[in-house]
Amino acid sequence: MSHASETSSESALMNHEYDSAFVITWRSPFPGREAAALTCAAEPDTRWSKLTTDGLCSTPEWLFHPSGWGMWMVRGLHAELDHLVQEDESRMLIARGTLLLDGFQYAIAPAGRGADRYVNNDAAVASEAGVI
């Protein structure tokens, strides 16, 4: 792909200039739903890996905390992630997660330069309020 034909999302991701992450967290499968949860686990990677190939998000990442919490995420531009999360395929994934996994939550959270902006805004407000 030529540099001139890159979308703004592709260019931003190549330069690690993302501003958000779509994050899913969960505790554990509900009792009796373990097999269905394992089957469902591959779905986010299948869908979002295709979107990675299209330059719309980063490669999906899985993280597991020793206490048992799981986390899955992709990074990208907020507007693009918001659009992708609202698509039917993503909404079905969220519905399955809610049904199968205890503690299931999702969010589009500030990350990268978005996290920098978030922290800087908080610091400015705290300074104006005389807290710091």
Account of the protein in words:
The chain has 132 residues and is an alpha+beta fold. The chain contains 6 helices and 6 strands. The protein has helices at 8-14, 34-41, 43-53, 78-86, 88-100, 113-128; strands at residues 20-26, 28-29, 61-64, 70-76, 101-102, 105-110. It has a 4-stranded antiparallel sheet. A hairpin with a 5-residue loop joins strand 3 (61-64) and strand 4. Helix 2 (34-41) runs antiparallel to helix 5 (88-100). The longest helix has 16 residues, at 113-128. Mean pLDDT is 88; it is low at 1-6.
Write down the Rg: 17 Å
Helix and strand element order: HEEHHEEHHEEH
Helix content: 40-55%
Shape by Cα distribution: globular
Instruction: Kindly provide the name of the CATH class.
Output: Alpha Beta
Number of helices: 6
Q: Hey, roughly how much beta strand do the residues contain?
A: 15-25%
Task: Provide mean pLDDT, rounded.
Answer: 88
Q: How are the strands of the largest sheet arranged?
A: 3-4-1-6
What is the CATH architecture annotation?
2-Layer Sandwich
Task: Determine the CATH topology.
Answer: Alpha-Beta Plaits
**How many structurally independent domains?**
1
Descriptive tags:
single chain; 132 residues; alpha+beta; Alpha-Beta Plaits; two-stranded antiparallel sheet; 6 strands; 48% helix; disordered N terminus
What's a quick, concise take on this entry?
The protein has 132 residues and is α+β, with helices and mostly antiparallel strands. The chain has helices spanning 8-14, 34-41, 43-53, 78-86, 88-100, 113-128; strands at residues 20-26, 28-29, 61-64, 70-76, 101-102, 105-110.
